[in-house]
From TrEMBL:
Name under which the protein is recorded: Glutamine transport system substrate-binding protein
Origin: domain of life: Bacteria
Signal peptide: 1-27
Family stated for the protein in its record: Belongs to the bacterial solute-binding protein 3 family.
Entry-linked PROSITE patterns: PROKAR_LIPOPROTEIN
Native source organism of the sequence: Trichococcus collinsii
InterPro entries: Bact_solute-bind_prot3 (IPR051455), Iontro_rcpt_C (IPR001320), Solute-binding_3/MltF_N (IPR001638)
Length: 266
């Protein structure tokens, strides 16, 4: 009983820090690189903290663990000299643009697909990962691929994602239900209130890593280049990030992080 209670305290404490930071005022009136060059080397990253493998709060350590956070730490180390300078705040699919537009975070790294529509509001770095939309269903489902979706099959997904927009084109006959977070969408599938759940393949791998009884229905439907989103007036910071992405790709760090988190599911 004491162990469970202590875990709850740690979880509440860690989440309180994240929520406090996510509701804070602007990071700084200075540009990110001006701030770093003046001695404040912290980089504030907005990221998902509820999706296994991609980004999840570890209640034992109070730290965010996953592919995106590891990439953020590696980039922070290249730019500032220490991965410890990476600070994380919680973000969801529907509010991540607002986080950089309002300077609550310096950058968003959260399985965010680079699209023309989003580039009207924020700038993106070069892509650091090519993901893709996929579909998972219960193991005993008759659905084998996206083509099997009908007017009677409900598809769950997260608000603000390109996946839910894509459904209107690739399977317009299938009704959709949108939820605030990926975990809520998956819970709907677990509860039998949806017939399928669509998201990035890496998000789906993360969900299946924690809950058995589900499988992919077909392969990857789309190619989704993930980029880091930042404010439009942060040209110098974007250049630094692009250089850092190139460095960790060339020295093998990026491949090591990918293998660490997704290797068992390829």
């Amino acid at each position: 009983m004491m162990k469970v209670t202590m875990k709850k305290v740690l979880l509440t404490s860690a989440l309180s820090v994240l929520l406090l930071m996510s509701g804070c005022m602007k990071v700084s009136e200075k540009s990110v690189m001006e701030r770093i060059e003046s001695g404040d080397k912290k980089i504030v990253w907005a990221t998902n903290v509820t999706t296994p493998l991609v980004g999840q709060l570890n209640v034992e350590t109070g730290k965010v663990a996953g592919y995106d956070s590891d990439v953020a730490r590696a980039l922070t180390e290249v730019i500032t000299g220490s991965a410890e300078n990476a600070i994380f705040v919680e973000v969801s699919s529907q509010n991540r643009v607002a986080f950089v537009k309002n300077n609550i975070a310096d950058a968003v790294i959260s399985t965010m697909t680079i699209t023309d529509e989003r580039e009207k509001q924020v700038d993106f770095t070069d892509s650091y990962y090519i993901g893709g939309q996929a579909l998972i269903v219960p193991e005993d489902s008759d659905i084998q691929a996206i083509e099997d979706l009908t007017a009677d099959t409900i598809v769950a997904g997260a608000k603000g994602t390109t996946m839910m927009l894509n459904m209107k084109t690739i399977a317009p006959q299938a009704p959709t239900r949108e939820y605030d977070t990926e975990s809520e969408a998956f819970t709907t599938l677990i509860a039998g209130q949806a017939d399928a759940y669509t998201s990035d393949n890496v998000v789906l791998m993360g969900m299946m890593s924690k809950t058995s009884g589900f499988r992919f229905a077909g392969g990857r439907i789309t190619d989704e280049p993930y980029g880091i989103a930042l404010n439009e007036d942060e040209d110098e910071f974007r250049e630094e990030l692009n250089e850092a992405i190139a460095i960790i790709r060339e020295n093998g760090t990026l491949a090591e992080i990918e293998e660490k988190w997704f290797g068992d599911y390829y």
